[in-house]
């Protein structure tokens, strides 16, 4: 059994694990992500530290895969830009190769997660997959005929900044009306907070859950309220689902996958989100009624998908 280490570098945590050929995580560890004011070397130290700890327990690993939130160049060696870190055109693979004695591969975290869901999770057996990750923003990945589609510069799959509302909400990217302004975790929290701040009578349940402090409201609190039967929270999630369906219909027009896998924190809402998404998707799909419809399913591997995928991709690359 060939083992590989996978590392997922997120905005707050660096998670690492030893992953076997069936996608099982045998050993795991984690560290806080160094603040973005820190030099690139500090993040490297954290990665090396995680690898050493895991290797002390399983010395027989064959490769190290690193999934990073950011733009990873198509050479899978360089991080072009990572919003949460100080990396700007960082030659990560070469820097780490001097310190880690194993083949190393760097991959965008959403690509790694999509790969994992295809190999071991919600999209097993599918040939054409589009993954949509709903976190603070929206990230994603495209896998066609069993291969990740990275684009000429490695930046394909940044679906969050497709425009869905002309002249809509302002986005951090500088444009207006981006999809992630309507269908992400941030959008959910923004809308829910606005209702509390407006003292809306329909937001009583939500307000009570945070003692009226709107800034303490989070996505999971809204999901929990919806599960407990709060009509407003259910409606807020349905609205996010509706916008999700609109964007997915656009993606179907472009890529025609057999399965959409919905991951990220908001996907924990399950059918409260996916039901409305499927409904809108069906109403907006190009050629509806005359074409097969893609399935829309929840991701299955949770927040370990990134590290599992990174490990598997690195192992495959090393064995070629
Ligand atoms: Zn944007």
Automatic annotation (TrEMBL):
GO terms for molecular function: ATP binding; glucokinase activity. It comes from the Bacteria. It comes from Knoellia locipacati. One of its GO terms (cellular component) is cytoplasm. InterPro entries: ATPase_NBD, ROK, ROK_cs, ROK_glcA. This is Glucokinase. Its EC number is 2.7.1.2. Pfam families: ROK. Keywords: ATP-binding, Kinase, Nucleotide-binding, Transferase. One of its GO terms (biological process) is glycolytic process. CDD domains: ASKHA_NBD_ROK_SgGLK-like (cd24061). Belongs to the ROK (NagC/XylR) family.
